């Protein structure tokens, strides 16, 4: 409860007073979540950093358009989701993230992390996004609907199909 009040106070300072320090505190609070989201979608740490930075720049620029119909975190994930898919469109990647992105994982990553990263690449973009948001980012279905703009049934079926594909992939390995 206290965190929600603190977040509301920071948002108010950002919107009404154009307070950069308040926005900086929001960035500190959510930067690791947004960066992890991008890492799980792309398996590319440098790309994750760049996209996270772009996400926060866009959030700062459009903070006055935040209507508080959802949580700030959900709104931020929506910007991040759009930023990732804008990047994919610019790169003209339509079906899967480039296989060479897996080579950017650090050598200290465990085999399990490598297996999961490889398994995630076996999913299409929609399934991967829904799986990452639901299981890794721990977002509820209603938030995933807001973040992705997909229908609730599509989100649920994408999660179900994604789970099945992941299980099949990991069982084969």
Q: Count the E strands.
A: 0
Whole-number radius of gyration? 17 Å
Number of helices: 8
| Overall residue-averaged pLDDT value | 86
The main pleated sheet reads as:
none
Describe this structure in words.
This protein is mostly helical. It contains eight helices and no strands. Helix 2 (20-42) packs antiparallel against helix 3 and helix 3 packs across helix 4 (72-90). The radius of gyration is 17 Å and the shape is globular.
What's this, in brief?
With 173 residues, the protein is mainly α. It has helices at 2-17, 20-42, 45-61, 72-90, 111-121, 125-136, 141-148, 152-172.
What attributes characterize this protein structure?
173 residues, mainly alpha, 8 helices, 73% helix, globular
Secondary structure elements and their pairing?
Elements: H1 2-17, H2 20-42, H3 45-61, H4 72-90, H5 111-121, H6 125-136, H7 141-148, H8 152-172
Helix pairs in contact: 1-2, 2-3, 2-4, 3-4, 4-7, 5-8, 6-8
């Amino acid at each position: 409860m206290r965190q929600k009040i603190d977040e509301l106070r920071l948002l108010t300072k950002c919107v009404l007073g154009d307070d950069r320090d308040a926005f900086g505190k929001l960035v500190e609070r959510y930067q690791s979540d947004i960066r992890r989201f991008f890492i799980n979608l792309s398996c590319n740490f440098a790309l994750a950093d760049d996209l996270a930075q772009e996400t926060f720049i866009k959030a700062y620029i459009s903070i006055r358009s935040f209507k508080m119909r959802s949580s700030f975190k959900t709104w931020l994930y929506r910007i991040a989701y759009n930023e990732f898919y804008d990047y994919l469109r610019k790169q003209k990647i339509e079906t899967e993230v480039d296989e060479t992105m897996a080579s950017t994982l650090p050598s200290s990553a465990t085999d399990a992390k490598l297996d999961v990263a490889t398994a995630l690449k076996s999913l299409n973009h929609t399934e991967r996004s829904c799986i990452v948001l639901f299981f890794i980012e721990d977002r509820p279905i209603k938030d995933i609907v807001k973040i992705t703009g997909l229908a609730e049934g599509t989100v649920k079926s994408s999660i179900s199909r994604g789970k099945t594909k992941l299980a099949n992939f990991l069982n084969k390995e």
